[in-house]
């Protein structure tokens, strides 16, 4: 199957050029209407750009789903606190997430164009694209695209003769999940330890280099050129009222077709799994789904009759997050899967807040012991209580993210934990 | 803007109404209301990273608990530090601190003044529930005066922030992340060359940072604590002298925002052994031919008074910058009465000041003695070189207070018709005295020092003097009374008032006015040859 697999139910906006290597060059990208939106935006007042994005209802694609136009409007409306910065969060590290990587690989100019529009909207003179250190190929591609944009006069001084100057810098991270947290990213960008900062002050007041800063996800800014070109009404014609537009669903796990699928928000989860992705692999049964990347609560198969928009997933007790859908079939060892996730958070905790530093590793130790057949009934209570003490008590939400899958899996798959504790399941080697 | 600074907000903390300037943090407002909020990473002298998560408090109407160390008080806040949520949160967090802690309190120097001990005893869980192996880091020598125990460390990073923000010498950092985080120096570069680094031991809330000088020396609950002034330079850092068995065990800084903030230098901190010296003059000694004979105070003083009244020729007086304003002030008064030809003192001086960059008011001053400025104000002149050597001349009548004369030739003063030595130790030159009178050191008496900027600060007795030693002001006060110069002062406060009655810079000052934070002298005299620096 040639990449990308296209399904007829997809609505291809951001992913239109996926699979076309020519779209990586500036000339190729222009054939898709590239940089027309930038030209249009530069002719508009910054506040008017913000109003268009506000009207579109675009919500941040990094996981929290905060309205992008509203976020931009938090920035100072004058130049009294210049320089402003726009940071593009390309540190995609959430287990299960691989949507930004594909956007960067296939459509680097889409991201750059969106970033430049965003920078104009918030009066930023400098865009930093903070990219995950392991993204070797995307870094090459985006780096080349930035050079092309400069050569074409689409970035740097006096863009398209508009008198507006915006620089674009690609910055590579050094391999820490926590640098994808917005304030951790800022610290890392400044050359400090990648540790989240206490808020307030919020980034729009004091962000990178102590200046007003906005930070947007790759997919968020990649959407912006399309909204500028085709209008907010067009964008609102897709998706639901509160979650308009399309979204990349990056599906992994035990489905026939894994990959990125661009679908309107509100798309049924079951349709995604059984239709778009071709159903469960090897004719197995669905056991559980993590709908938004490893940080969100797990959904049992019985809870999967939901639509994929921010509100519906939240109503089901989980979160849409990055729409990184992890599908698990009936052979999946939930204890092992959760243990593996907890190990990830323990490894990636920055270590500044005590509940997270100590709690993630403690949780991992107990999970390892349960998996090895050495667990007790008290361990389950301890896990839940540790999780409560790790939730809402720290600067960022990494420790909450560690606690969520533990609590939700104990609630929904308690029998699997019990089988381990009663040694009804042979203790497996603690493999990765 | 000025309006904004003077504006106040009123809130309630545990039902107590407090009014504080806008921008005050909850933890500080609570302190004003007499409410302590448990914390580790917050320190009033450092930035607050809000990472220990101990100070989370409930603010009515705010869904999440908020860190009191960074959250500012807003008008009308109803803050609850003892609500069930706040208490449960602290209890849960304390368990996280406990699970990997070695609980080796019986061999830990911090035991007894450890904040982990305090808070766990107050409201922590009875047992940590960890059933698995603890994380073990072991110990590390950080160079300088510091041993690091990674297992006890709670990662509050106060030490890292002290080195970065106050010492401005980024020699410590957190390496690794998550539960593998540990404090470390950079490769082999230790703390050796950093002159203020031992402060990190004081601010470490647990026993992770140990002063090699105090290592396994005393249990802290056996120590007596006496507020005092560091005598080792003219900065006048406020300190606490910790003693056991009548020996100084360690010096620690005492907060004074006008002088030393929360800090002191390592030189001052570790220069205390001389206070513990045992080779002290034990009794008044009176010359009998070529021998010095021990006598009781009364006959010795009566004999001395007679000799003073019969004196003839030039009088020279030597004071001591390691002794108090009271001691030297009454000596200066005696010099006035006797019409002394010179009134001098000697003090050691370092080549340079050593400034604490993050609090530049504080420096290890050049003058390596506490009271040079006080002596200048009392009319003494500095003589001798920067090693406190030379510069003294004999006279017909020679009165020496405190100066050990260790560098002087063995026959110094032997030509005097009356040589009175008030001091602590008997070096050869002092043996030429006709009267040797044992006096107490600053650490053994109450008194005041005047620091380089003219701030008069009080200290209190931390050690017991040898049984027959007396404060010099008392000895000199009796002599003055014998010379019909008013009654002998009954205590140090009176001696200070007497000094103020004779010497304008101290006029009108009282111990009450000086209090624990010090008070400036009247019209501080210009820094002369010896007073300042």
What does this structure look like?
The complex is a heterodimer of chains A (432) and B (533). With 432 residues, chain A is of the alpha/beta class. Chain A folds into three domains: 21-236, NADH-ubiquinone oxidoreductase 51kDa subunit (Rossmann fold); 246-329, Ubiquitin-like (UB roll) (Roll); 334-421, de novo design (two linked rop proteins). Chain A has helices at 26-30, 36-42, 46-56, 68-73, 99-106, 108-121, 136-151, 182-189, 218-230, 232-236, 269-276, 310-315, 334-348, 354-371, 377-390, 398-412, 414-421; strands at residues 84-90, 124-131, 167-172, 213-217, 246-253, 259-264, 267-268, 286-290, 299-300, 307-308, 324-329. In chain A, strands 6-5-11-8-9 form a five-stranded mixed sheet, with no helix packed on it. Chain A has a four-stranded parallel sheet with strand order 3-2-1-4, sandwiched between helices. The longest helix of chain A is centred in the C-terminal third of the chain and has 18 residues, at 354-371. Chain B is α+β, with helices and mostly antiparallel strands and 533 residues long. Chain B has 13 helices and 26 strands. Chain B has helices at 2-6, 26-32, 84-99, 115-123, 158-166, 199-203, 266-270, 297-309, 325-338, 372-377, 472-482, 492-502, 511-514; strands at 8-13, 16-21, 56-59, 66-67, 78-80, 139-141, 146-149, 172-175, 182-185, 209-211, 224-229, 238-244, 247-253, 285-288, 291-294, 315-319, 342-345, 354-355, 363-364, 381-382, 397-401, 418-423, 435-438, 447-450, 455-459, 519-520. In chain B, the strands form seven sheets. In chain B, strands 15-14-23-22-21-16-17-20 form an eight-stranded mixed sheet. Chain B starts with a helix and ends in a 13-residue tail after the last strand. Residues 527-533 of chain B have low confidence and may be disordered. The chains are: A alpha/beta (432), B alpha+beta (533). At the A-B interface, α13, α14 and α15 of A face α3 of B.
């Amino acid at each position: 199957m040639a990449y990308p697999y296209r399904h007829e139910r997809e609505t291809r906006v951001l992913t239109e050029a996926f699979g076309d290597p020519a779209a990586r060059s500036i000339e190729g990208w222009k054939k898709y209407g590239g940089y027309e939106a930038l030209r249009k935006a530069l002719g508009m007042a910054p506040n008017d750009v913000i109003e268009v994005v506000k009207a579109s209802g675009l919500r941040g694609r990094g996981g929290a789903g905060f309205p992008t136009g509203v976020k931009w409007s938090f920035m100072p409306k004058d130049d009294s606190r210049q320089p402003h910065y726009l940071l593009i969060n390309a540190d995609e590290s959430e287990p299960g997430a691989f949507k930004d990587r594909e956007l960067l690989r296939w459509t680097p100019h889409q991201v750059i164009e969106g970033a430049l529009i965003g920078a104009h909207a918030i009066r930023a003179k400098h865009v930093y694209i903070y990219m995950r250190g392991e993204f070797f190929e995307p870094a090459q591609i985006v780096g080349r695209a930035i050079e092309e944009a400069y050569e074409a006069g689409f970035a740097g001084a006096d863009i398209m003769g508009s008198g507006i100057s915006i620089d674009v810098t690609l910055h590579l991270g050094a391999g820490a999940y926590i640098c994808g947290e917005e304030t951790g990213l800022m610290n890392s960008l400044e050359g400090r330890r990648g540790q989240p900062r206490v808020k307030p002050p919020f980034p729009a007041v004091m962000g990178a280099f102590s200046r007003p800063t906005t930070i947007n996800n790759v997919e968020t800014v990649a959407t912006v050129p399309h909204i500028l070109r085709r209008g907010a009404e067009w964008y609102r014609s897709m998706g639901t009222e509160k979650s308009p537009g399309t979204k990349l669903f990056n599906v992994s796990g035990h489905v026939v077709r894994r990959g990125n699928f661009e679908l309107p928000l509100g798309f049924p989860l079951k349709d995604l799994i059984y239709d778009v992705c071709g159903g469960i692999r090897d004719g197995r049964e669905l056991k559980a789904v993590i709908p938004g990347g490893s940080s969100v609560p797990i959904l049992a198969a019985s809870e999967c009759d939901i639509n994929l928009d921010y509100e519906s997933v939240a109503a089901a007790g989980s979160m849409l997050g990055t729409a990184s859908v992890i599908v698990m079939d009936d052979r999946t060892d939930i204890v092992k899967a959760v243990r593996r996730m907890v190990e990830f958070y323990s490894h990636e905790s920055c270590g500044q807040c005590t509940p997270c530093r100590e709690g993630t590793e403690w949780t991992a130790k107990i999970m390892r012991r349960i998996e090895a057949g050495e667990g007790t009934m008290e361990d389950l209570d301890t896990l839940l209580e540790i999780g409560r003490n790790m939730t809402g008590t720290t600067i960022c939400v990494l420790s909450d993210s560690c606690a969520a899958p533990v609590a939700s899996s104990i609630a929904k798959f308690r029998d699997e934990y019990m089988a381990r504790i009663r040694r009804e399941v042979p203790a497996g080697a603690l493999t990765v | 803007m000025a309006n904004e600074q003077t504006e106040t907000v009123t809130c309630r903390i545990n039902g107590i109404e407090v009014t504080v300037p806008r921008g005050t943090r909850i933890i500080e407002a609570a302190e004003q209301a007499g409410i302590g909020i448990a914390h580790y990473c917050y320190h009033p002298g450092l930035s607050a990273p809000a990472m220990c998560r101990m100070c989370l408090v409930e603010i009515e109407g705010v869904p999440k608990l908020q860190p009191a160390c960074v959250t500012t008080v807003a008008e009308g806040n109803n803050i609850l530090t003892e609500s069930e949520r706040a208490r449960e949160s602290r209890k849960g967090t304390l368990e996280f601190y406990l699970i990997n802690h070695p609980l080796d309190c019986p061999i830990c120097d911090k035991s007894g003044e450890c904040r982990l001990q305090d808070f766990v005893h107050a409201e922590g869980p009875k047992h940590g529930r960890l059933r698995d192996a603890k994380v073990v880091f072991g110990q590390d020598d950080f160079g300088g005066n510091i041993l690091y125990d990674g297992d006890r460390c709670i990662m509050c990073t106060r030490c890292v922030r002290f080195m970065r923000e106050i010492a401005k010498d980024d020699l410590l950092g957190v390496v690794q992340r998550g539960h593998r985080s540990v404090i470390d120096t950079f490769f082999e570069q230790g703390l050796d060359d950093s002159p203020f680094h031992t402060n990190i031991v004081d601010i470490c809330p647990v026993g992770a940072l140990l002063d090699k000088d105090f290592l396994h020396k005393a249990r802290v609950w056996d120590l007596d604590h006496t507020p005092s002034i560091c005598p080792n330079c003219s900065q006048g850092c406020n300190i606490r002298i910790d003693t056991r068995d009548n020996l100084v065990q360690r010096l620690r800084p005492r907060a004074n925002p006008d002088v030393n903030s929360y800090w002191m230098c390592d030189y001052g901190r570790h220069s205390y052994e001389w206070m513990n010296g045992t080779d002290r003059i034990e009794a008044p000694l009176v010359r009998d031919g070529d021998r010095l004979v021990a006598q009781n105070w009364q006959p010795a003083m009566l004999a001395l008074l007679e000799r003073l009244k019969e004196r003839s020729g030039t009088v020279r007086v030597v004071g001591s910058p390691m002794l108090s304003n009271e001691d030297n002030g009454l000596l200066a008064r005696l010099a006035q009465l006797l019409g002394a030809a010179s009134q001098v003192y000697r003090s050691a001086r370092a080549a340079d000041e050593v400034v604490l960059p993050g609090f530049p008011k504080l420096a290890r001053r050049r003058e390596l003695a506490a009271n040079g400025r006080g002596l200048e104000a009392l009319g003494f002149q500095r003589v001798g070189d920067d090693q406190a050597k030379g510069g003294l001349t004999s006279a017909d009548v020679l009165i020496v207070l405190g100066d050990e004369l260790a560098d002087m030739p063995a026959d110094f003063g032997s030509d005097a018709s009356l040589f009175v030595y008030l001091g602590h130790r008997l070096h050869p030159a002092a043996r030429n005295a006709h009267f040797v009178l044992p006096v107490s050191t600053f650490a053994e008496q109450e008194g005041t020092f005047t620091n380089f900027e003219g701030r008069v600060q009080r200290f209190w007795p931390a050690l017991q003097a040898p049984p027959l030693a007396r404060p010099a002001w008392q000895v000199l006060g009796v002599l003055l009374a014998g010379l019909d110069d008013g009654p002998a002062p009954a205590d140090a406060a009176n001696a200070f008032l007497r000094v103020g009655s004779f010497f304008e810079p101290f006029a009108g000052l009282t111990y009450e006015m000086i209090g624990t934070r010090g008070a400036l002298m009247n019209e501080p005299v210009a820094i002369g040859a010896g007073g300042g620096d």
